[in-house]
Amino acid sequence: MLNKIKFLGARFSSIEINKKNKLLGDLEKITGTLPNDYREFLFHFGSNVQFDAMVSFKSIVPSPWADKKGFDAIEYFYGLINTNTGYTVFEAINTYRDDFKMKFIPIGFSSGGNQICLCLDEKQKGSIWFWDHETDPTFDTEKIIVGLTLIAYDFKSFIGKLAINEDSSPSKAIGGYLDF
């Protein structure tokens, strides 16, 4: 799993083991125990993980933003610290806390401001979801009703879906930031 991310041209900055352990502990105080595959990812990389190439994936259920072939893009994963640009996982959780009510946490940034999320709810814990940020996520005690589409049943399977996209536009969304 970790080698696959490196193969995709991952850029990240190493941080000290003691600092990673402390930050993971801090994160799990907020989220509860994280799935092992995602925890291993955070511990290995530490910082945000960006890619040198356009990286895409095909969800189990296509998102509203997927291209004609059903692919979405991931621009970067949130890390424990930020050494480049973008949010840390802590900042992403804080930003979307009210939207997800801690049933999901954002773990990655997709084109157009959409989010890749990890489910923390016991029934589907560890599954990975695409959130169309223009739709308020709605769920009841049994299932998700709107706003989220299933990408993979666990983080490791999600990583297995990632591939370099040779196409110039893998999604209907256009990434980027506006600075006023």
Distance between the termini: 39 Å
Strand percent estimate: 25-35%
Let me know the largest β-sheet.
8 strands, antiparallel
Give the number of helices: 5
Helix content: 25-40%
Inertia-based shape: globular
- Multimeric state: single chain
Organism: Citrobacter enshiensis
Domain Knr4/Smi1-like: 28-159
Protein name: SMI1/KNR4 family protein
Pfam family, one: SMI1_KNR4
Care to describe what's here?
With 180 residues, the protein is of the alpha+beta class. It has a single domain (2-164), classed as SMI1/KNR4-like. Helices cover 28% and strands 26% of the residues. The protein is built from five helices and ten strands; from the N terminus they run H-E-H-H-E-E-H-E-E-E-E-E-E-H-E. The strands form two sheets. Strands 1, 2, 3, 4, 5, 6, 9 and 10 form an eight-stranded antiparallel sheet that branches. Strands 7-8 form a two-stranded antiparallel sheet. Strand 4 (104-110) and strand 5 form a beta hairpin. The longest helix is centred in the N-terminal third of the chain and has 15 residues, at 17-31. The radius of gyration is 15 Å and the shape is globular. Residues 28-159 form the Knr4/Smi1-like domain. This is SMI1/KNR4 family protein.
